[in-house]
UniProtKB/TrEMBL annotation:
<keyword id="KW-0333">Golgi apparatus</keyword>
<keyword id="KW-1015">Disulfide bond</keyword>
<dbReference type="Pfam" id="PF07915">
    <property type="entry name" value="PRKCSH"/>
</dbReference>
<keyword id="KW-0325">Glycoprotein</keyword>
<dbReference type="GO" id="GO:0005576">
    <property type="term" value="C:extracellular region"/>
</dbReference>
<dbReference type="InterPro" id="IPR009011">
    <property type="entry name" value="Man6P_isomerase_rcpt-bd_dom_sf"/>
</dbReference>
<dbReference type="InterPro" id="IPR044865">
    <property type="entry name" value="MRH_dom"/>
</dbReference>
<feature type="domain" description="DMAP1-binding">
    <location>
        <begin position="117"/>
        <end position="216"/>
    </location>
</feature>
<dbReference type="GO" id="GO:0005794">
    <property type="term" value="C:Golgi apparatus"/>
</dbReference>
<comment type="function">
    <text>Non-catalytic subunit of the N-acetylglucosamine-1-phosphotransferase complex, an enzyme that catalyzes the formation of mannose 6-phosphate (M6P) markers on high mannose type oligosaccharides in the Golgi apparatus. Binds and presents the high mannose glycans of the acceptor to the catalytic alpha and beta subunits (GNPTAB). Enhances the rate of N-acetylglucosamine-1-phosphate transfer to the oligosaccharides of acid hydrolase acceptors.</text>
</comment>
<dbReference type="InterPro" id="IPR012913">
    <property type="entry name" value="OS9-like_dom"/>
</dbReference>
<comment type="subunit">
    <text>Homodimer; disulfide-linked. Hexamer of two alpha (GNPTAB), two beta (GNPTAB) and two gamma (GNPTG) subunits; disulfide-linked. The alpha and/or the beta subunits of the enzyme constitute the catalytic subunits.</text>
</comment>
<dbReference type="GO" id="GO:0016740">
    <property type="term" value="F:transferase activity"/>
</dbReference>
<protein>
    <recommendedName>
        <fullName>N-acetylglucosamine-1-phosphotransferase subunit gamma</fullName>
    </recommendedName>
</protein>
<feature type="domain" description="MRH">
    <location>
        <begin position="10"/>
        <end position="112"/>
    </location>
</feature>
<dbReference type="InterPro" id="IPR039794">
    <property type="entry name" value="Gtb1-like"/>
</dbReference>
<dbReference type="InterPro" id="IPR010506">
    <property type="entry name" value="DMAP1-bd"/>
</dbReference>
């Protein structure tokens, strides 16, 4: 994310509302502590630093996910970043069950360009974005296709977490790339054949019968 926000790392900001104290530690977590003398007063994690919320080429918030369990899901918190005179946690709400919303004020986001995504990317990813812009302009891709490319760019940059399906897809792509040439395929085949020989010997030593198709 934006390098100038990293100075917030290692610091924590608290906010007290009625009997609860909320604590936001940027790039770390969000916690809630019940300020009562009850023997079972709640104290727990509302979310751990996970990914950015990006909208219209702008970092608009931080998602803290996978907090303490709450019924069938985990608690999660979205932290909205807004311009303010000092660094402070200004507002806390719970718009839906176990999903919290925090507003964090900081002078670090007051400059109009302070939360732009593009400048934080590597040159290669910026080029990829430029190409997508050109394709969209030339009407060679749809708006939906453009958004898909942007999402991939943000995931590659580590700003968004890739979904499990995407991870599986990436892994399968890696596997197919390994066999782009016949030489690579032959080399891999020889290695696997040697491994099978060793395993068959090992099975024989332990008196285990090996049943397999010689062509496998």
């Amino acid at each position: 994310g934006p390098a100038h926000l990293f100075r917030l790392a290692g610091k924590c900001f608290s906010f007290v509302e009625s009997t609860y104290k909320y604590e936001f530690c940027p790039f770390h977590n969000v916690t809630q502590h019940e300020q009562t003398f009850r023997w079972n007063a709640y104290s727990g994690i509302l979310g751990i630093w996970h990914e950015w919320e990006i909208d219209n080429n702008t970092f608009v918030g931080m998602w803290m996910r996978e907090g303490d369990s709450c019924e069938t899901k985990s608690r999660q918190t979205k932290v909205h970043l807004v311009c303010g005179k000092s660094n402070k946690l200004a507002y806390v709400s719970e718009p839906s069950t176990c999903v919290y919303s925090l507003t964090f004020e900081t002078p670090l986001v007051c400059h109009p360009h302070s939360l732009l995504v593009y400048p934080t990317l590597t040159e290669a990813l910026q080029r990829k974005w430029d190409e997508a812009e050109q394709l969209l302009y030339d009407e060679l891709i749809t708006d939906q296709g453009y958004k898909k490319i942007l999402k991939e760019i943000f995931e590659e940059a580590g700003l968004l977490k890739a979904t499990e399906e995407n991870e599986v897809e990436k892994q399968s792509k890696k596997i197919t790339l390994e066999f782009e040439t016949v030489e690579k395929c032959n080399k891999e085949y020889k290695q696997l054949s040697e491994e099978i020989k060793k395993l068959r010997v090992l099975l024989g030593q332990h008196g285990i019968a090996y049943k397999g198709n010689p062509g496998e």
